[in-house]
Amino acid sequence: MEDLTLTQEDGVWRSTSNTPPSHYVMKIQLFSQLAKKKIETYHSSDFEAGGYKWNLVVYPNGNKDKGITDHISMYVAMTQVESLNPGWEIHANFRLFLRDQNKNNYFTLEDVAGKPFHKMQLEYGFDKFVPLTHFNDPAKGYLVNDICVFGAEVYVTQEKLTGKGEILSMVKDAISYKHTWKIDYFSNLIGEYQDSQPFNAADQTWKIQLYPKGKGSGKDNHISLYLALAEPKKLSPATKMHTNFTIRILDQINRIHYFGTDNYWFSASNNLRGWPRFVSMSYFYMKSAGLLVNNSCIVEAEVTVNGMANVL
């Protein structure tokens, strides 16, 4: 783009306007300092248009991620979208402004067709908003005394605020977390079950749950053991985590540990998984098994979260 001829091409309308932008104006003083301070991107404060929050995004020396080095790149981005329903989509037309301080008007680029904003695409705009050669030329009036003025208008044309969507984020080289729980005076335990101290694994809080007299099909003849989310109510209803886990009762004599391994999608509503018949009481209390020594046992949980699914 060697000049700023007023044309419409590729769905983009280039024009001049005598009216300042109605939704947001951003004045930058000492613009050259952005490059000297190696500030590659500037995000404006949020502004409201069409009932939604937006900000203006400026790349003073071009969006290098797009291979742009000879133009200013400028975009408009939706913000504060966390409260919107799953599957939301907002269609909007937008116009971006650059003030000509010599002629006291604005050069504008407008996306005529509009764009669909949604959770996976929050930002649209122009990789090549204005050539740096034009912008830095004092005769053009865009940068005067190291001051420039940008602006934006956003017009929402269509809203889709209901629907369903999901994003699954898998973890490469997932880390295993281990927690060890020593239970003393085992034969004196009271209550239906005992909980370990909460422990953290993959940014979630977990606990081991043990039923000394069994639970369900293991009642009165087995030790029951489970892995549980310690704070399931903190998860959104749609969040689920694919988890590999192993629970062991350590053999304190022979080091032939008694264990179970499983994988499960944990969620707020499915927050506990394990074995009602983990180990029979007859074997657990057998001295040679080494699972209960001096009335103490040691339980160990190893937890690996492989991925998390959430709403879009």
Order of helices and strands: EEEHEEEEEEEHEEEEEEEEEEHE
Query: Could you tell me the strand content as a percent range?
Result: over 45%
- The number of helices is 3
Average pLDDT number = 92
Strand order of the largest sheet: 1-2-9-8-11-3
Low-confidence stretches: 1-8
End-to-end Cα distance: 37 Å
**SSE-based structural type:** mainly beta
> Overall 3D geometry?
elongated
Give the strand tally. 21
- Biggest sheet layout: 6 strands, antiparallel
Fraction of residues in H or I helices = under 10%
- Radius of gyration (CA) equals 31 Å
Structure write-up:
The chain has 312 residues and is mainly beta. 4% of the residues lie in helices and 52% in strands. The protein has helices at 32-36, 132-135, 281-284; strands at residues 8-9, 12-17, 24-29, 42-43, 47-49, 52-59, 71-79, 89-100, 105-117, 123-131, 147-160, 166-170, 176-183, 194-195, 199-201, 204-211, 222-229, 240-249, 258-267, 272-280, 297-311. The strands form 4 sheets. Strands 1-2-9-8-11-3 form a 6-stranded antiparallel sheet, with no helix packed on it. Strands 4, 5, 6, 7 and 10 form a 5-stranded antiparallel sheet that branches. It is elongated and about 95 Å long. Mean pLDDT is 92; it is low at 1-8.
Write the layout of secondary structure elements.
Elements: E1 8-9, E2 12-17, E3 24-29, H1 32-36, E4 42-43, E5 47-49, E6 52-59, E7 71-79, E8 89-100, E9 105-117, E10 123-131, H2 132-135, E11 147-160, E12 166-170, E13 176-183, E14 194-195, E15 199-201, E16 204-211, E17 222-229, E18 240-249, E19 258-267, E20 272-280, H3 281-284, E21 297-311
Antiparallel strand pairs: 1-2, 2-9, 3-11, 4-6, 5-6, 6-7, 7-10, 8-9, 8-11, 12-21, 13-21, 14-16, 15-16, 16-17, 17-20, 18-19, 18-21
